[in-house]
Amino acid sequence: MRDIPIGNGSLLINFDDxxxxxxxxxxxxxxxxxxxxxxxxxxxWVDGAxxxxxxxxxxxxxxxQHETLVTHVRLVNASLGIEIVCNDxxxxxxxxxxxxxxxxxxxPEDREIRLFFHHDLRIYGSKVGDTAYYDPETxxxxxxxxxxxxxxxxxxxxxxxxxxxxxxxxxxxxxxDAEDGRLSGSVVTEGSADSTVSVHLSVDADGEAEAFYxxxxxxxxxxxxxxxxxxxxxxPAEFMNYTANYWRAWVNKNDRPLEPLPQQIIDxxxxxxxxxxTHIDNGGAILAGNDWDVTLRATDHYSYLWTRDxxxxxHALDKAGFSHLTRKxxxxxxxxxxxxxxxxxxxxxxxxxxxGWHPAWNRxxxxxxxxxxxxxxxxxxxxxxxxxxxxxxxxxxxxxxEKVTVPSAEFMADFIHPELGLPKPSWNLxxxxxxxxxxxxxxxxxxxxxxxxxxxxxxxxxxxxxYSAAADSIRNAMAKHLYSPELGRxxxxxxxxxxxxxxxxxxVDASCFALFYLGCFAPDDQMVQGTMSAIETKLxxxxxxxxxxxxxxxxxxxxxxxxxxxxxxxxxxxxxxASAKSLGDLEKAERILLWITDLALPSGVLGEQIDPVTGxxxxxxxxxxxxxxxxxxxxxxxxxxxxxx
Length: 645
What we know:
By secondary structure, the protein is of the alpha+beta class.
């Protein structure tokens, strides 16, 4: 779990719940974790005693300053008589991590206090071939390998430093050297290298003292050295204040009134926008999640762009008025779209194809498969039209038309099962089964309708008619083949077996919310009402909603049908909002929004799932999709609220 991420689209720093720096991503958000998930520690020596701030003797409160990407972390050690307040940030436009440390002496005598900052870097994700050394020109400690440089400095200037070997022949690293209150390591170490620097402070009785610490990241020595000079020239305190003010201005830039929403919903709405921003690479990729701990159980992670997640997140950002970010996402999509007009499972932040498990070969049938989940293609077109419809950027829409809209629409219009008239089998949005899925079909209808609107906008009558007719045909086929009159609701899918024989799957699945949300059927359509009623009753978990019946993914107890997911719970709220006929009908949606604010971490972070027993996050945190869905649902609720006022 990652309790407080901070970043600027190029440099991302993640902290765990013990306030260790755990991840340093650079130069892409979510790509090249320069620590490989290993902790970099923060310690203190006072009155002959040493303590790492991650130890159990400290109480910790990890939060952010209001409406910023600047942390406000309070750490208290009663036995040492010390309180520490840390404010951490990544500069909004420079690749600089900056920390302000305020030491509060709770004792009635003057004291000497030493702060220790440890760095366990594994540059390019490997401990092999790193160098850590003291650089006399910048009076700093530098870690480097090839095109990655990380310069470490402090104010007041560190009194001691050490470089050394770690994770090799029993050597644990220079953090062990620090535990006697002194550093006596080498001035340079190559190989599996770490470092520690120490700042010495004199603190008056019942008084306070301040220090600053920073890491400048660059792709060459001169870049890092110049950033270090920039901090020194500008002064760390002023730089910290500037960054805080920037993020307050950013999150409030649209001057959008949020009253009469309860304050806790407003606070999480703004925090969610800021946290989503930390997941967006400057190149346009929107990363699902950057919690490296996932690799311990999966040998892979969530630091990828799934265009499905990206499309939903872009849609939320557009609704909130942040179109400059969504245009970057659509530009990214135009660069990575497959020549055949679809998107693959996921992509790295630099645009390369990421790891995947969708097979391109059907071993049983002895024939090729299209290795996709088609909703990822369709949702990009849906979100692209929603973007245009709100912002009316005709030049941008024209640029995307031939690059993305037409290739995707042509693929979807042709990728049709010859007997059923539905999209051919592909993988579902949960990526755990192949077939013809209700969610996928609804997204394809939405994508083709979007393409038809773009074709009409650009006066291409033949394409308009083709895409519109394809959407209508699929919608009719859904009512015929995916709706069960006996059950009074839609099937989850027609499940594809090894020989592509299709079997109705009656499992109740929260993703069927797409029927109304993507405009395939009206919220008051009897088929939709029956489907959403089943979701509401069959998937209820302690105030939340599970993904689907008997969901075993990371389930913590067999007493429930599955863990509740934030996105699935918010989808039910969207249904309450869409179907509301009066102000009173909105109360259930507001209860869901408030329920989610209660389950957020103190920092405001939302994970993927919720432990039904403890209410703690399960799987990774934060999950960008959880936060963007909260943003989108909050705006849906607010707009409907105003309709009734």
